[in-house]
Structure formats: C-alpha cells, structure tokens
Amino acid sequence: MTTKTLATIGAILMALTTLSSCANTIRGIGQDTANTVNATESAGRRVARAAN
C-alpha cells in the first residue's frame, strides 16, 4: 500500500471513531435530561404532598 492509501484509511477510521463518540455523548445528554425531568417532577410531588 502507498502512503497516500494508508493516510486515507487512517483519516476515515479517525472520522468514524469521532462520529461514534459523538453519538454516545448525545445519547448520554438525552438520558441526563430525562433523569433531570424525572427528579424535578418527583420533587414537585413531594412539595405538593407536604403542602397538604
């Protein structure tokens, strides 16, 4: 293989690795957001019960 071919393959592999790590980060942000919403709703219910 030539140097140009190896460089191209290396660049493609690096791009794929970067894109896959971005997908994991976006999924994690979605999970964190869902957990925050659930915690906020739970706190609101506790406050409402305490007020009664």
From TrEMBL:
Cleaved signal peptide residues: 1-23
Keywords attached to this entry: Signal
Signal in keyword set: yes
Highest rank taxon of the organism: Bacteria
Annotated protein name in UniProt: Entericidin
The species this protein was found in: Sinorhizobium numidicum
